[in-house]
User: Fold these one by one.
Assistant:
Number 1:
Amino acid sequence: MIRPVRLAITALILLGAATTAWAQGAPQRLRDVPPPAPGSLSLPPRGDNPNLRQVPDGPGAPVAELRGLDKVTARTRTFTATLGEATRFGTLEIEVGACLVNVPEALPESAVYLTIVDHKPGQQKEKLFAGWMFASAPSLSALDHGVYDVWLVGCTRSQGSAPPSSR
C-alpha cells in the first residue's frame, strides 16, 4: 500500500517540475501578442504561406463566419462579424482585424485575426483574446472563457455565397 502511494507522489512531483520547466521556456501566448497596425496585415504568423490572401472581391463586405457556444445553455449560434466592426455574442465584443482564405488551388483554409473583449455588467472590460484563429484547427488558438467558446467557420462576403476555398 505504501509503495503505490510513494510512486504516485513521486510522479506528481516530477510532473509538476516538468510543467514548470516547460512553462518558463514556452513561447509567448497568442493573447499577449499586440494587435497589428491597421493596414499592416498580410499573412498570419504561420510561416510564409503564399496561398493565403484577402477574401476575393465581390458584392458585400468581407466577413468572418463565427460559431459561438454558450456553455451555460449548451446552445450554439452561427453569426457573422464584418471586418473592422465590433459584433456582440453574449457579453463578448468581437472585432475582426483581418480575414484571409486560401487560393482555390490549395486546400481549403480560412484565418482570421480577432480581438475579443468581455463586457460583464458592472465590471471593467477585460481583453480575453487577440490573435489568429484558423478554421481548420480551432484548438490551435482558442478563446479561454468559462461561459463562451468562439471559433472560426470561414471567411466570405456578407452577400452571396462563399468561394469554395474559404471553408
Note: The chain has one domain: 33-166.
Number 2:
Amino acid sequence: MKIWAKTMTSVGALAVMLLLAMGSEDPPARLMDQTNKSKVPIQYGVVQEGMRIVAEDGSFELKGGQRFTSPFQSDLWGYGCNNFSNKDVLTKANDVLLCGAKKVKVYYGNNPEPLYGVLALNQAIQAAHGPASRSYMIKIAEDKIQHARAGNTSVSFEYMNWTESKRWSHTYRQQTNEKTWYSWILWVSAYPM
C-alpha cells in the first residue's frame, strides 16, 4: 500500500506542477486594430468643367463646374467591397455596383455621344483626413476619354488619406500607418457596362 500512496502523491505533484507551468506562460502578443472606421458621409463635390454625369435611371445629374450635394453614398470599406487594388480596379466596375455605385452616362466636351460608366462615391471614415475625405473632385484626363471612345474601359479615381491605428496587447504601444483608399471611382467606356 505504501507504493500506491507514493505513486499517487508523485502523480498529484506532477499534475500540479504541469498545471502551474501551463498557466505561467504569457499569451502571445497580438497587434490589435483600433482604427476608428465609423462611416462619415462625404456630402459635397464638384465635377470638372466640360463634363456632365447623368444617372442611367435619371435620378441625378452632376454638371461640370458646379458644386453638387452627393446624390448617393457607396461603401467601399465594407467586406467584399474593399478587396481590390490599383492592379485590378479596372475590372471591378460590376463588383462595386453591389457596394452602392451607380450606372451613369458621361458627356464630355461638345460630343453629344455619351460614354457609359459606373460611378462610386465612397464614404469616408473617422480616421480619414485631407481634402478628398471631405469633398469629391471628379475629373477625367483627356487621354482616358480617348481611350474609352476607342472601345476600351478607362478608370479614374481620387484617393483619400487615412491613419491606421494599432496597439500591441502586451505593451500597449501604439503603432500608426498612413494609408490611402478611394474617395471616388469612375469607370467609362463607349459601350454599356
Note: The chain has a mean pLDDT of 89.
